[in-house]
Amino acid sequence: MAVKQPQTQMRPTTTPETSGAVQTGAPKMRAAGINFYYGKFRALHDVSLEFATNKVTALIGPSGCGKSTFLRNLNRINETLRDTRIEGEITLDGENILTRDVTEIRRRIGMVFQRPNPFPKSIFDNIIYGPRINGMLKTISAADIVEKSLRRAALWDEVKDKLRESAYALSGGQQQRLCIARALAVDPEVLLLDEPCSALDPIATAKIEDLLVGLKSQCTIVIVTHNMQQAARVADTTGFFLLGRLIEHDKTDTIFKNPSKKETEDYITGRFG
Amino acid sequence: MSRNARRNGVNAFMLGLCGVCAFVTVSTLFVILGYLVFNGATSVSLNFFTKLPLPPGKDGGGMANAIIGSAQIVIVATLIGLPIGFFSGIYLAEYGGKTFAFLVRYVADLLNGIPSIVIGIFAWTVIVVPTHHFSALAGSLALSLMLIPITARSTEQFLLEVPRSMREGSLALGANKWKTIASVIVPAARKGIMTGMILGVARISGETAPLLFTSLNNQYFSTGLSEPTASLPVMIFQRAISPYDDYHRQAWAAGLVLLALVLLANIAARTVISRGTSLPK
Question: What CATH code is assigned to A27-117+190-268?
Answer without folding.
Answer: 3.40.50.300
